[in-house]
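#onboarding

Welcome to the new folks! Below is a worked example of what a typical request in this channel looks like: someone posts a single protein sequence, and someone else replies with the predicted structure as tokens. Don't worry about understanding the tokens yet, we'll cover that in week two.

Example request:
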Amino acid sequence: MTRITYLSIIIIFSALFIAGCAAGENNGLYIKTSSDKLVLCGWDEVFIIDTGRKNQQRPVKLWSWKAQDSSELPERLTGLFGTTDECKVVDGGRKILITASSGGIALVEVKSKKVLFYAVAANAHSAEILPGGRVAVAVSNAPDGNRLILYDLSNPEKELFSDSLPWGHGVIWDEERQVLWALAGDDIRAYGLKDWSSSQPALERIVMVKLPEEMGHDLYPLPRTNKLFVTTDNFVWLFDRDKRTFQKYEAIDNTFHVKSVCVNPVTGQLVYIRADEGQWWSEKIRFQNPDSVIFIPGQHFYKARWFTTQR
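Example response:
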């Protein structure tokens, strides 16, 4: 084999390899759930980083979504995702459920980045997929806010039901107990599914437990336990879903203004976002077990969720 032929083969092989990588990046196949990947939101972009890459000064974005790039969204809605405040991994990592305090709600397929569902709710703060293809949204303080709203994923923007939820900030579906937990400003509530197979489904409030202090922010499960993380202005708590009691989560120092807490169900590592002084967001992502900090100047982090198949 001549040197020219040998070089030609190498060049052709390299070109095919690069093209294959590019194709994988374009169709999203390379974004697989992993115990090292994080989904982040807070500003007008939701993105995924790999925290397992060593010696990286600024983590590389593996995946990114912005409303302005989504052709499936009506143009009148693209400006409603300027301040994203939730980015839940759902459907085994195939989709991300996004809310924004600026008014937007979207279910995005990771592979294609297509918007599969959208809605508008002033000051939307959290959403959760429910059985039967429905979605609940917690809406915080606004002229038409302070509510828990129910939608059907097959019918964008149409409200099926709503209930009062002052300063609504969090919703979590509890498969074992078959209830939806919802976080308000002063209490945590449980809702049962009512008339669920009908055309007029509803959420029936069955439990209300007062918070240890006011201003609930985040609501998220502690994996493989009956506990839910609840954050308030000054503390992080664990809520026992069976005893319906609270205890302080002492593992996090300086727990004031914690916007999100999430424990990796595979590694046990905890990630949390604590607002920078005088802000509702942070430029830092904080970890425990093992401890570390990722500092990215100019970013506005509000929520961090592990990109895994389970919670």
